[in-house]
Amino acid sequence: MITTSPIFFSIFFCLIFLLQLTTSTDTLSPNQSLIDGQILTSEGQRFHLGFFSPNNSNLKRYLGIWYKTTPDVIVWVANSRTPLQDSSGTLTFTKNGTLILENATHGVLWASSKPSHELESPILKLLDTGNLIIQEKTTTYDDSVTTTTSFPWQSFDYPGNTRLPGMLLGENTETGKEIQITSWISPDDPSPGDFTYKIDQLGLSQLTISNGTRKRFRTGPFNGICFNGLLMVGNQTFRILTDVDRIRVRYITDPYNASSINRLVLAQNGTIQRYVLDQKTNEWKHSFTIPGNVCDIYGQCGKNGICNPEQEPICKCFDGTKPVSDQEWVSSDWSKGCRRDVSEDCGNVETFVKISGAKLPDLLRFEMKKNMNLSECQEKCLRNCSCTAYANPYVNSADTGCLMWFGDLVDVRKYPEENNEQSFYARVPISKQGNFSVSGKNNKKKVLITIAISVVGLLTTMMICGCIVVKIKKIRGQKSKKEDLELPLFEFSTIVAATKNFSSANMIGEGGFGAVYKGELSKKQEVAVKRLSKHSGQGIEEFKNEVNLIAKLQHRNLVRLLGCCIQGEERILIYEYMENNCLDHFIFGPSKKQLLPWPKRFDIIMGIARGLLYLHQDSRLKIIHRDLKTSNILLDSNLIPKISDFGLARTFDLDQASAKTKRVVGTYGYMAPEYAIDGKFSIKSDVFSMGVLILEIVAGKKNRSFSHPDHHHNLAGHAWLLWNDERDMELMDGNMKDSYVEKQVRRCIQVGLLCVQKLVDDRPEMSSVLFMLSNEEAKLEEPKEPGFFVERSSFHDEEKIHIFGSEEYMTKDTMTITDMDTR
Ligand SMILES: *[C@@H]1O[C@H](CO)[C@@H](O)[C@H](O)[C@H]1NC(C)=O
Ligand SMILES: *[C@@H]1O[C@H](CO)[C@@H](O)[C@H](O)[C@H]1NC(C)=O
Ligand SMILES: *[C@@H]1O[C@H](CO)[C@@H](O)[C@H](O)[C@H]1NC(C)=O
Ligand SMILES: *[C@@H]1O[C@H](CO)[C@@H](O)[C@H](O)[C@H]1NC(C)=O
Ligand SMILES: *[C@@H]1O[C@H](CO)[C@@H](O)[C@H](O)[C@H]1NC(C)=O
Ligand SMILES: *[C@@H]1O[C@H](CO)[C@@H](O)[C@H](O)[C@H]1NC(C)=O
Ligand SMILES: *[C@@H]1O[C@H](CO)[C@@H](O)[C@H](O)[C@H]1NC(C)=O
Ligand SMILES: *[C@@H]1O[C@H](CO)[C@@H](O)[C@H](O)[C@H]1NC(C)=O
Ligand SMILES: *[C@@H]1O[C@H](CO)[C@@H](O)[C@H](O)[C@H]1NC(C)=O
Ligand SMILES: *[C@@H]1O[C@H](CO)[C@@H](O)[C@H](O)[C@H]1NC(C)=O
Ligand SMILES: *[C@@H]1O[C@H](CO)[C@@H](O)[C@H](O)[C@H]1NC(C)=O
User: Is 181 among the domain residues?
Assistant: First the structure.
């Protein structure tokens, strides 16, 4: 060893001499090295990469990244577990795209993992975000990218105790790597300490700080918008990427903002400290601490205790429980918590009390039912004696969901109500209801409710629950006004993977605005992916506004938008997937027709009518669909109809009654005459399409391709002829002969005919359509001549024949969603 050493050293230094970095740079090329004393500097002069000793107090040397202007603030350490004992270290960037930290005698002390894919000509670069990346040399990247998931290797995937803006916490969706923050052992020793800060994925996502398996802090579960309870720990805004079900949070990240320098550190004592650099004085200002309040400390009041920092003492037992040890409790030792009285006939002598403005109990034993609403949830919880609480985990009024807790309730804290509107319902014995100690305001109301319950029993409980639900809805309504509804943004790569690169095998439809693919985000999560036609020229902000608008349209009979994806020219919408696909498969498919007996068909007609009424009247914006047809009606697993493609065509101001367009979008066979011919559309042109739909559903035949030996009219014309001969029942699909209700069928045909009347003013509005369909007593007018009541063979004009013959007709221009903005 001793003899070979000098020779080795001369080679070593020779090599260094050859490859030495002459000027300060932010990159290393393959075969280049960095020795102790040399540094890389990011382009904007914010960060340095090099060798350092913590606190300059000992000779241990580490490779790391620090702020150029405050070199004692280390943000990343490579060899945190394997320090060098002297300044003999060399960092080499190998030609296969990995980093190796070694010294002559000791060999490799640290090496980076392989890049996520093989690189032809790799390059190492220190970015101004503080991220050290390995990347193909020819690829250009944008320093301002706020979310960095796509580098083949990046130091941001291997954080120590510091989270920088742009860094992910959670899962790097590109590499699948789970990223968490780990405290240092001490300010002198960056090796991993006791505490981690991460996204805990126990069914529902929460942010936690823990020492091993022992939690020290948690935020409360994700509630569709933010983490329940995080509101209280500072104004930090961050981006959240969730799965489509909006239960699981993939990652959170602080947006990178070049003009604000800040960092989040998980200190060795398990607290998170946030600091912001005052760029004038070059001093770090402390911004906030988590846990920031005595009640933020995990399980401060023990099990079944509730913590409220604004009362004295801070801990109370939930109603129906009492301190395990009275003596310890009164001397402010709450660690043993409270014990639940076991009640013998739990379902009958217990009820729930609303606890509002609280951090939801920890998810120790719980069940989540995504499709249950709050009243069903209460009922289910009440029936199971070990169910101790329930809640809707979401704050969006449109989201149903039932979260139930079993056994002890742990780590509940109360917030001032104006700061946290989320509530849950805790089980209490009816006999204990006088003590609404934890439920804050509205005591009077609740006492009244209580009396009602004890008198009338279970039935009343459910009604009261209804009252509470209404109240919550009101609160939520206010909330959603305040908050900018943010839909989850999906990575393009996720969509590519989910649709097998938009393979034709996955294509399930093609409409006016683009193709629709079935996508699989995971084994259990199927979605419908609408890839909007390109060349729209629409800006990102414009698109986001439109998407936000569509997302706000929520109705049982509208397909729900789950998220979107924007990348370059790509504009993609992600919808819930409907396993029964579209209505036309059912009513026109010979094998499936039998699956739709009359009562189902009637329900479907009513559902579509409700959905359309919502678009026309009940949503805040008057939406004209413009392309209502059977293939745009999707059926869920219960055959509940959902209108799709709404909102894409054009949104209307409420006072705008009709408009004219040169670009006709729609499908012949469903288009009203004034729209097909003059491009004039209004809610009444949607009513026309609705009429065609009703007649098609009753007849099981298509309007446009209808043929009859006696005449050349379309289905609507045929229906009118039958109507005038009082033979209207002959229109009915023969498959319904065992199931039809004659009165209803007749009524549907008549309403259908009223809807397809030629003159706009003769057609009813959707509200009366719905009224006429559902009220047997309603007096119906006699329908007049339908639109396009002209025998097709009499047409000589080829273009007009085309109207009836073509499957679908669209001008090129209309295949874009810019159309939405042409007012
Ligand atoms: C790196 O060094 C190896 C041997 O030391 C040499 O074969 C290779 O060509 C070099 N590569 C580059 C990109 O300089
Ligand atoms: C850092 O070094 C200074 C002086 O060398 C010492 O007073 C201080 O306690 C050290 N800090 C830590 C956290 O070790
Ligand atoms: C290499 O590093 C080891 C461990 O840090 C150290 O003991 C050794 O002295 C170093 N070798 C040289 C030549 O500096
Ligand atoms: C990458 O290069 C280093 C040094 O050149 C070598 O030790 C390592 O095995 C290589 N890794 C792969 C995956 O080729
Ligand atoms: C972390 O937990 C371990 C074992 O439970 C304990 O010994 C240690 O003191 C804890 N660390 C801190 C900093 O509380
Ligand atoms: C939060 O924002 C308010 C006003 O917007 C400000 O006064 C306060 O200092 C901020 N708090 C933190 C911790 O940044
Ligand atoms: C970036 O930070 C600066 C200073 O805090 C602020 O004024 C600016 O609005 C921020 N920009 C964005 C896009 O958030
Ligand atoms: C934890 O450590 C941070 C940073 O060192 C310090 O500011 C804070 O006061 C400590 N908190 C406790 C409770 O020890
Ligand atoms: C909850 O769902 C049930 C069954 O689907 C329904 O009857 C009830 O009206 C719903 N309640 C609310 C408040 O939406
Ligand atoms: C109550 O719910 C728990 C958890 O789901 C379950 O294990 C238990 O069997 C249920 N008990 C009854 C009586 O349904
Ligand atoms: C709650 O009720 C129990 C029994 O009814 C009673 O002993 C206790 O004093 C009450 N607690 C409060 C805070 O009113």
Answer: yes
Which among 242, 800, 334 has a CA at the least distance from the CA of 563? 242
With a 6 A CB cut-off, is 367 part of the ligand 10 pocket?
yes
CA dihedral 672, 675, 681, 683 (to 10 degrees): 0
pLDDT number for residue 64 = 96
Q: Can you give the three-state secondary structure of 533-587, one letter per residue?
A: CCCCCCCHHHHHHHHHHHHHCCCCCECCEEEEEEECCEEEEEEECCCCCEHHHHH
The total of structural domains in the chain comes to 3
Q: Can you give the CATH number for the domain in which 48 is found? A: 2.90.10.10
394, pLDDT greater than 80? yes
Model pLDDT, residue 66: 96
With a cut of 90, say whether residue 532 has pLDDT above it.
Answer: no
Reported as a pLDDT band with limits 50, 70 and 90, residue 524 is confident
Query: Residues forming the annotated binding site for ATP?
Result: 530
Best residue for ligand 2 mutational test, from 52, 53, 56, 57 (most atoms within 8 Å of Cβ): 57
Shared-domain flag, residues 571 and 589: no
Which atom of ligand 8 is closest in space to residue 268's alpha carbon? 2
Tell me whether residue 157 is in a domain.
yes
Pocket of ligand 7 (CB under 6 A): 257, 259-260
Q: Would you state the structure tokens that stand for residue 516, as one six-digit string?
A: 């629709």
595: domain range?
583-798
Counting ligands in written order, the one closest to the CA of 57 is 2
Ligand nearest to the CA of 287: 6
514 pLDDT tier (thresholds 50, 70, 90)? confident
Q: Do 501 and 624 lie in a common domain?
A: no
Handedness of CA 354, 391, 209, 491 (dihedral sign): negative
Centre of ligand 5 from the C-alpha of residue 305, in Å: 24
Res 729: pLDDT: 92
d(CA 215, CA 235): 23
* Spatial CA neighbour of 75 closest among 83, 67, 86, 85: 67
Residue 530 main-chain phi, psi, to 5 deg = -100, 115
Which of 371, 372, 375 to mutate to test ligand 9, by most ligand atoms within 8 A of the CB atom?
A: 375
Confidence of residue 458 (pLDDT cuts 50, 70, 90): very low
Q: Is 15 in the pocket of ligand 3 (CB under 6 A)?
A: no
In the annotation, is 710 catalytic? Answer: no
Q: Which tokens go with 368?
A: 């989540």
What is the Å distance from ligand 11's center to 370 Cα?
A: 36
Q: Is residue 373 part of a domain?
A: no
